[in-house]
């Protein structure tokens, strides 16, 4: 019971910290699905992102090799990040503009990697004024649309899948984009190219880069957990949790008394099914160098 009390106190502390963060800023986005490694930086703190976690204005999100992240905004719009991406919401708020639903206004910044923004089914009830910045050279003003973009060392690129937007680059005139499957590219150190039709087959190659990879994902509300490790001391558990956090994996510790003494289990949660969690055992062995993991049912 002492073990349970220790971890219950830790859990309460973490919940209190989350509550304070929520009180300081409105919750306008949530991590719905992810494939680690994924991190969130809030102030001076960097920690792995959990499925179902709230994301606040000012948070900086990043994915590592093989990582993916799908966010849902409060108006049901989605933001999808591919691997090795860096993304930030420096400003996002709902403004009272006299309408019933208000105006969603803000800035979304992609510093590196690939992303997709798609307005959702509920978005028709909410007006929006969002600027999406891709690297240092591309800014798109959107109201309601589906776009795909990428920032890399050689260029910034934006493709309009559906809807209409305006795009610009510092020092150059704004260009309208209203034709589906058109794209805008700014080669590094060069003027932006005119808006043009996306070459055949290109979009079909880009879109999968921001979809979940062909592997189990962690989901908001996923009830199955994978027991990665079972260790004998609280210090060992804390050390392993810290090691996995540095690798972009958020774990929980379950303490229990056994006839052989106390055990501390490190759990990776968020799997939608037993099969998904079971399949992830192979990924844990490959990426985390952990063997002997097993699935804990709800």
UniProtKB/TrEMBL annotation:
Keywords: Signal. GO terms for molecular function: peptidoglycan binding. This is SPOR domain-containing protein. The keyword Transmembrane does not apply. Residues 218-297 form the SPOR domain. The keyword Signal applies. It comes from Solimonas fluminis. It holds the Pfam family SPOR. Residues 1-23 form the signal peptide.
